[in-house]
Amino acid sequence: PDGQTIAFWSPTDCNIFLANADGSGTPKRLPTPGFSGCAARPEWSPDGGRIAFEGTGQDSGINIYVMNVSPEGYTSGLRRLTDNRFFYEKPAWSPDGTEIAFVSNRTYEWEIYKIDVRSLKVTRLTHSPLMDTEPTWSPDGEHIAYVKQKLVRGTHASIYKMSSDGSNSTPVFEEERKYAFNPDWAP
């Protein structure tokens, strides 16, 4: 969030790295003490003090984890937020840092959920026979944009938005046989 450091993951060695945004220095592997699986898709918290990530453990599915990160790249307080029974992907922090939206197959359909980072209360936001993915919060935290696509590839993928409580889902871009991915809000 301060624009000085970029977090990214490398699928070849399943680690998260920090790099200077100006390109100086060598990217540094971010330690994840207590986690021995594949760490992927890091997302900075709005205050820059934590990173949420998608992690695959040796004996579990994909879960959402959060850890504290210092400006020097030291980590602490690793916590698994999800329950290890299903797949959880693509964490996205709310602007106030209290919730994380994510994708899961908890209902055996790919839906969008959110979790309160403190209480770990999970709320299902979408209820669709389609595949809902790629949640992203509006800057004011009032809405979430996401991708809705038919489970059969080759048809279409549309951009929708909904209120942050899951209500009022409406299409933003929807055309048969056209694809739209990676929604992001202007700051």
Summarize the structure in short.
By secondary structure, the protein is mainly beta. The protein has strands at residues 5-10, 15-20, 28-29, 38-44, 50-56, 62-69, 75-80, 88-93, 99-104, 111-116, 122-124, 131-137, 143-149, 157-163, 170-173. Helix content is 0%, strand content 47%.
List the helices and strands and how they pair.
Blueprint: E1 5-10, E2 15-20, E3 28-29, E4 38-44, E5 50-56, E6 62-69, E7 75-80, E8 88-93, E9 99-104, E10 111-116, E11 122-124, E12 131-137, E13 143-149, E14 157-163, E15 170-173
Antiparallel strand pairs: 1-2, 2-3, 4-5, 5-6, 6-7, 8-9, 9-10, 10-11, 12-13, 13-14, 14-15
Head-to-tail CA distance between termini:
12 Å
Radius of gyration over all CA atoms, rounded: 17 Å
Structural class from helices and strands? mainly beta
Q: Beta-sheet strand percentage?
A: over 45%
Major β-sheet profile = 4 strands, antiparallel
What are the secondary-structure elements, in order, as H or E? EEEEEEEEEEEEEEE
Question: What labels describe this entry?
Answer:
mainly beta, four-stranded antiparallel sheet, 15 strands, 187 residues
What does this protein structure show overall?
The protein has 187 residues and is an all-beta fold. 0% of the residues lie in helices and 47% in strands. It is built from no helices and 15 strands. The chain has strands spanning 5-10, 15-20, 28-29, 38-44, 50-56, 62-69, 75-80, 88-93, 99-104, 111-116, 122-124, 131-137, 143-149, 157-163, 170-173. The protein is globular. The model has no long low-confidence stretch (mean pLDDT 85).
